[in-house]
Design goal:
elongated, about 270 residues, 13-stranded mixed sheet
């Protein structure tokens, strides 16, 4: 594997979009050291920021990562990226394949423009997880995002396809303007989930803090497709499981003529 150990954190944002396993594999150490990253408004060689070990495999290990290290795994198409520490904004932006494993927390807009692959975050994720970037018509369009802790507000806003599974709690306005896909929040969520939701499914292990009046109660339901989802979640690393028993189903959002569904464990 290619290995990078950052020497120290910086309060300035670092544009680390060049750090992707499929781009760095096979490059000699001197070439890696000369690679420039934008730190604030200044370009700095990677060799000044991190200790470097070259490698041939499409596997990148980053140690000493910090919360202002932005755009890690940008546009990643293949390989594995292991990050030890926190990551900044836009983790895995535009990713289409491979796997990112973050042993820490991620900043805002993780999984933005995701087109495939898997992102695993062991701790927490910031606001707008898998959501549309400003000016974009849709959020993530494919792929799997697994979060071991909590996630911030507006998870999956304008999400089109794919799966976001959060072991902890979602913030406010989860699945707002959702177009399709599946979001799971085992710890429940804040206020007004599914605002202007058109399609897709939001599954909650606990009742939300407030539910909009634009959703209709369909009673408790046993839905066959949930068994398939549960099997997929149990096969992930680490495994997850859906809430047991029938779930109360709410459909909406009526404000936009939506046909989305909120499935809530009683």
């Amino acid at each position: 594997a290619v290995r990078l150990r950052f020497k120290e954190a910086t309060t300035l944002p670092v544009d680390a979009r060049a750090l992707s396993p499929d781009r760095l594999a096979g490059k000699p150490e001197a070439e890696l050291a000369a690679l420039e990253l934008l730190v604030g408004n200044r370009r700095v060689p990677l060799g000044e920021l991190a200790e470097i070990t070259a490698g041939d495999a499409q596997e990148l290990v980053i140690e000493g990562s910090f919360a202002t290290l932005d755009r890690l795994g940008h546009g990643m198409a293949d390989g594995r990226l292991h990050i030890y520490g926190d990551a900044g904004a836009y983790l895995g932006q535009g990713m289409s394949g491979g796997r990112i494993e973050l042993f820490g927390s991620a900043g805002v807009y993780a999984a933005a423009q995701l087109r495939g692959g898997t992102i695993q975050i062991t701790a927490h994720a910031g606001d707008f997880l898998g959501a549309a970037l400003p000016g974009d018509a849709a959020g993530m369009e494919e792929g799997v995002v697994l979060v071991g802790g909590d996630a911030g507000d507006r998870v999956g806003e304008r999400m089109r396809r794919g799966l976001i599974a959060v072991r902890g709690r979602l913030g406010d306005l989860a699945a707002a303007r959702m177009i399709g896909g599946t979001i799971l929040g085992l710890g429940g969520c804040g206020v007004d989930p599914g605002y202007a939701m058109r399609r897709g499914s939001l599954i909650l292990g606990r009742a939300p803090d407030n539910l909009l009046a634009t959703f209709t109660d369909n009673g408790r339901n046993e839905l066959p497709w949930l068994r398939l989802l549960d099997r997929e979640l149990r096969g992930q690393e680490p495994p997850l499981a859906l809430p047991g028993g029938p779930l109360r189903r709410w459909t909406g959002c009526a404000s936009v003529g939506g046909k989305g569904e909120l499935l809530v464990a009683d």
